[in-house]
DNA sequence: AACAAGTTGTTTTTT
DNA sequence: ACAACTTGTT
C-alpha cells in the first residue's frame, strides 16, 4: 500500500525573502511595538487597534532579523489565537514561523512539565483533571470525612473547588480568602483547610494535576530550580504575552521567571477589557509590569481601525462611566455609519423573533452569516433564540457554555483511555467501575484498592483477574480487563482505541440513557473522528483537557457551512474577535449585569468592561436588545429595566427603539 | 450496598 | 429546568 503524508501548504515558500515595508504597513505606534525587539515592552492596545497585526509583524521582524523561530514563545489566551497569528506571520516571512512555540499558559506548562516532571517528583505521565474531575475528588474526600451530613450545611463540591481554586489563582490561602469575601463559610474553616490538604495529598499520590497545579508547578519550577529556569530562558529568547490584562499573579511570576536570562518580554493588553477576575486575573498586572521589569518601554495603541464612529462613541460612553479611569480613549479611523440601537422587546420570544428576522433581512442585503454574531452574558441566555433560529433554518455555531467534551458519555469513554495512560488515575477508575452492573461507590473503591499497586496495564489485568468474584459484575470485570489490554499497545492509533472503547461502552450507554441514546451515540461517533486526528494518546488527552473542541457537535450540514454560519457566543468567548454586525441580547438589569454580581462594586465594574468588550466587537452594525415583562426565577424578581450600563445615555449616542409586531401571532 | 423514586435546592463567565 | 441530595425498596 502506498503511504504518504499531507502537510499544510505554506502560503509563501520558506526561502522567499523580501523586505517587509514596516513603515508603510503600520502606524508609528504599531511600528515602534513591532520593531522594538530587545528588552521589556508593555503595549497598551485598545480594542480594534491592530494589536494582532502588530504582533504578527513583530514575529516576522524577529524571524527576519535572524532569530530562530523555535526561540520565540507566544503566549495567548487560546491556541487558536496563536495559530492564527503564526499563520499570518508565515505569510509574511515564510513557513518557518510555524515553529514558534505558542499556546496558552496552561498548555505551555503542560509541555514543560511533562519534560521536567521528575525534577518535581512527579511522573511524566500525569493526568490532568478538569473542573468536574476535581469536584468528583473533593466530593469523595468530603463524604469520607463525614462532612456530607445535612445538619452541618457544609458547602457543596462546586463551591469548595471554587474556593480552593480562587485561593490559588489569587496567590492567597483558604483562611485569608474566607476572611475576605466568604465570611459565611468561616465556621467551616478548619474542615475546609483539612479538606484542601487531603485534596492536595490525593492528587500527589496518584499523579493527578488540576488546572491550577499546572500554573503553580511551572511557577515553582522557574522560581526554585535556577538551572531549569536558565535553561528555559535560553531556549525562549523572546517572549510575547497577549491579553495580559487577563493574567493573574502566578502567570506574571511565570513570565518573570522565564525571562530571567534576558528580559526580552513584550506584554500586550488592555485594562479596559479585563474580564477574567473570577479566575484570579487582575488588570493591575498591567500597571505592575514595569515594576517586574524595570526600564520597560510603554507603547500605546489608541487608533481604532475596526468600528464606525457611532459605535466607538457608544463604547467610549460605556467605559467613561467606569469607577476607575482608564488609560486611553480610542480615536476612530473609520468614517461615519449608522447608529447603534437599543431595542425594547415585549418579552423573550419577541426578542428572539426580532433577532432572527433582522438576521434574515441582513442576509437578503448581502451580509454573510459569517459576519454576524449574537453575544450574551451567560450561555443559557440564547436558549430561546436557538429554537427560533432552528425553526427559521438559520445555521449557527455556539461558542462558550457547555462543551461536548463535558457530556457524561464522552467523559465515560475518555475515562477508559485515561486509565491506560495512567493506571493510578483514581478518578477515571471510579467512573469506569461505576458503569458496571452491581458496582457502586463502595465496591469501586474496594476494587481500586485491590489494584493499588498496579502501575502497568499488565498488572491491572492481573489484579482484575485475581479480584474475588461474586455477583453480577464478574463477567463485566473480565470484559473490562480484556478491553484495557486490547487498547494498551502504543502501536494502536488513538482513533482505533476510542472506536473499541465506544464499541464496549455502547451497550451500557443504551442501558443508562434509554430515552435519548441515539443523540449520544452520534456524539461518540464524532469523538472517534476527533481522536482519529491525533498521533498519540498523550496529546489527545492533553488537548481534551486543555483545548477541547469548542464547536457544538457536527450538527451542521456542509452545504450550510458553504453559505456561512451565524455565531452565537458568550462575550467571554468572543474576546479578540470581530464581526460586521453584532447583536447583544438580554441587556436587562439583573442579567447583565448579573444579579449575582450586584453587591460588589468591583464585580459591577467588571460587568461594565464586559459590555465594553461586547460593543467593541462590532465593525458596522450594533443592536442592543432587552425584553420587558420578565420574571426571573433565579433572581427571584421581576426584571424589565434596561441594563444600568445603558440607562441614561443620550439618544444621540444610543437611540431607543421599540419592536412592534404586526400580522398576528406566528 | 446498590438502585429507583421522590424531594429539595440552585442557577455566570473558563483554562 | 436540572442536578444534587434523601428516602425507601430490593
What does this structure look like?
- The chain folds into four domains: 22-110 and 215-301, 3-Layer(aba) Sandwich (Rossmann fold); 127-206; 309-403 and 555-658, Rossmann fold (3-Layer(aba) Sandwich), CATH 3.40.50.300; 405-546, PCRA, domain 4 (Orthogonal Bundle).
- It contains 26 helices and 19 strands.
- It is an alpha/beta fold and 666 residues long.
- Mean pLDDT is 87; it is low at 1-17.
- 46% of the residues lie in helices and 12% in strands.
- The structure holds a DNA duplex (15 and 10 nucleotides).
* Strand fraction: 5-15%
Q: Any idea how many domains?
A: 4
How many runs of DSSP E, i.e. beta strands?
A: 19
Structural class: alpha/beta
CATH superfamily of the largest domain: P-loop containing nucleotide triphosphate hydrolases
Q: And the CATH topology of the largest domain?
A: Rossmann fold
This entry's quaternary arrangement is single chain
What's the mean pLDDT score? Answer: 87
The N- to C-terminal Cα distance equals 59 Å
Topology:
Blueprint: H1 22-25, H2 28-35, E1 41-45, H3 51-64, E2 72-75, H4 79-93, E3 101-103, H5 105-116, E4 127-129, H6 131-144, H7 157-169, H8 174-179, H9 189-205, E5 208-210, H10 211-224, H11 226-235, E6 238-241, H12 249-258, E7 265-269, H13 284-292, E8 297-301, E9 303-304, H14 309-320, E10 331-332, E11 341-345, H15 348-364, E12 372-376, H16 383-391, E13 396-399, H17 408-421, H18 426-434, H19 441-450, H20 457-466, H21 473-487, H22 494-512, H23 517-532, H24 537-546, H25 558-562, E14 566-570, E15 579-584, H26 601-615, E16 618-627, E17 630-632, E18 637-639, E19 656-658
Parallel strand pairs: 1-7, 1-8, 2-3, 2-6, 4-5, 6-7, 9-10, 11-16, 11-19, 12-14, 12-15, 13-14, 15-16
Antiparallel strand pairs: 17-18
The structure holds a DNA duplex (15 and 10 nucleotides).
Amino acid at each position: 500500500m502506498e503511504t504518504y503524508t499531507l502537510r499544510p501548504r505554506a502560503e509563501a515558500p520558506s526561502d522567499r525573502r523580501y523586505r517587509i515595508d514596516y513603515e508603510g504597513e503600520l502606524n508609528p505606534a504599531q511600528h515602534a511595538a513591532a520593531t522594538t525587539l530587545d528588552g521589556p515592552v508593555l503595549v497598551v492596545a485598545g480594542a480594534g487597534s491592530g494589536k494582532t497585526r502588530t504582533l504578527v509583524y513583530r514575529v516576522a521582524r524577529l524571524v527576519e532579523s535572524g532569530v530562530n523561530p523555535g526561540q520565540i514563545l507566544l503566549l495567548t489566551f487560546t491556541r487558536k489565537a496563536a495559530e492564527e497569528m503564526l499563520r499570518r506571520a508565515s505569510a509574511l516571512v515564510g513557513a518557518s514561523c510555524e515553529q514558534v512555540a505558542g499556546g496558552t499558559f496552561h498548555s505551555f506548562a503542560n509541555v514543560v512539565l511533562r519534560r521536567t516532571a521528575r525534577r518535581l517528583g512527579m511522573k511524566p505521565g500525569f493526568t490532568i483533571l478538569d473542573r468536574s474531575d476535581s469536584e468528583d475528588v473533593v466530593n469523595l474526600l468530603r463524604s469520607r470525612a463525614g462532612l456530607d451530613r445535612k445538619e452541618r450545611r457544609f458547602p457543596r463540591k462546586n463551591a469548595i473547588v471554587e474556593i480552593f481554586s480562587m485561593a490559588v489563582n489569587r496567590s492567597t490561602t483558604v483562611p485569608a480568602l474566607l476572611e475576605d469575601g466568604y465570611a459565611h463559610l468561616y465556621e467551616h474553616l478548619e474542615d475546609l483547610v483539612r479538606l484542601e490538604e487531603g485534596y492536595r495529598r490525593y492528587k500527589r499520590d496518584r499523579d493527578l494535576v488540576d488546572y491550577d497545579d499546572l500554573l503553580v508547578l511551572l511557577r515553582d519550577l522557574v522560581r526554585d530550580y535556577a538551572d531549569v529556569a536558565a535553561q528555559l530562558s535560553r531556549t525562549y529568547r523572546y517572549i510575547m504575552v497577549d491579553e495580559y490584562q487577563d493574567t493573574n499573579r502566578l502567570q506574571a511570576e511565570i513570565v518573570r521567571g522565564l525571562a530571567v536570562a534576558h528580559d526580552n518580554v513584550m506584554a500586550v493588553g488592555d485594562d479596559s477589557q479585563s474580564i477574567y477576575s473570577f479566575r484570579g486575573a487582575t488588570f493591575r498586572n498591567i500597571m505592575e509590569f514595569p515594576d517586574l521589569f524595570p526600564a520597560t518601554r510603554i507603547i500605546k495603541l489608541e487608533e481604532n481601525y475596526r468600528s464606525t464612529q457611532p459605535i466607538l462613541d457608544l463604547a467610549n460612553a460605556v467605559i467613561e462611566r467606569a469607577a476607575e479611569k482608564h488609560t486611553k480613549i480610542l480615536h476612530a479611523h473609520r468614517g461615519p455609519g449608522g447608529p447603534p440601537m437599543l431595542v425594547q422587546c415585549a418579552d423573550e420570544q419577541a426578542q428572539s423573533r426580532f433577532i432572527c428576522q433582522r438576521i434574515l433581512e441582513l442576509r437578503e442585503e448581502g451580509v454573510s452569516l459569517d459576519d454576524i454574531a449574537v453575544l450574551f452574558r451567560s450561555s443559557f441566555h440564547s436558549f430561546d433564540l436557538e429554537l427560533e433560529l432552528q425553526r427559521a433554518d438559520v445555521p449557527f455555531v455556539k461558542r462558550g457554555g457547555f462543551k461536548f467534551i463535558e457530556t457524561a458519555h464522552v467523559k465515560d469513554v475518555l475515562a477508559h483511555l485515561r486509565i491506560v495512560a495512567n493506571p493510578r488515575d483514581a478518578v477515571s477508575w471510579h467512573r469506569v467501575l461505576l458503569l458496571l452492573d452491581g458496582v457502586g461507590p463502595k465496591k469501586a473503591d474496594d476494587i481500586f484498592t485491590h489494584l493499588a499497586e498496579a502501575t502497568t496495564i499488565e498488572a491491572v489485568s492481573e489484579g482484575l483477574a485475581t479480584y474475588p468474584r461474586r455477583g453480577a459484575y464478574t463477567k463485566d470485570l473480565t470484559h473490562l480487563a480484556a478491553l484495557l489490554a486490547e487498547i494498551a499497545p502504543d502501536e494502536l492509533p488513538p482513533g482505533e482505541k476510542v472506536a473499541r472503547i465506544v464499541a464496549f461502552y455502547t451497550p451500557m450507554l443504551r442501558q443508562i440513557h434509554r430515552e435519548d441514546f441515539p443523540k449520544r451515540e452520534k456524539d461518540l461517533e464524532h469523538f472517534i473522528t476527533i481522536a482519529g486526528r491525533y498521533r498519540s494518546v498523550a496529546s489527545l488527552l492533553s488537548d481534551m483537557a486543555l483545548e477541547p473542541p469548542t464547536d457544538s457537535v457536527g450538527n451542521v450540514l456542509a452545504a450550510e457551512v458553504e453559505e456561512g454560519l451565524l455565531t452565537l457566543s458568550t462575550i467571554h468567548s468572543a474576546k479578540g474577535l470581530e464581526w460586521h454586525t453584532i447583536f447583544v441580547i438580554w441587556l436587562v438589569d439583573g442579567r447583565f449585569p448579573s444579579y449575582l454580581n450586584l453587591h460588589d462594586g468591583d464585580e459591577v465594574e467588571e460587568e461594565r468592561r464586559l459590555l465594553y468588550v461586547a460593543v467593541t466587537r462590532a465593525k458596522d452594525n450594533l443592536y442592543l436588545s432587552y425584553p420587558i415583562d420578565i420574571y426571573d426565577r433565579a433572581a427571584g424578581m421581576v426584571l424589565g429595566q434596561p441594563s444600568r450600563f445603558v440607562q441614561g445615555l443620550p439618544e444621540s449616542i444610543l437611540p431607543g427603539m421599540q419592536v412592534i409586531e404586526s400580522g398576528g401571532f406566528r
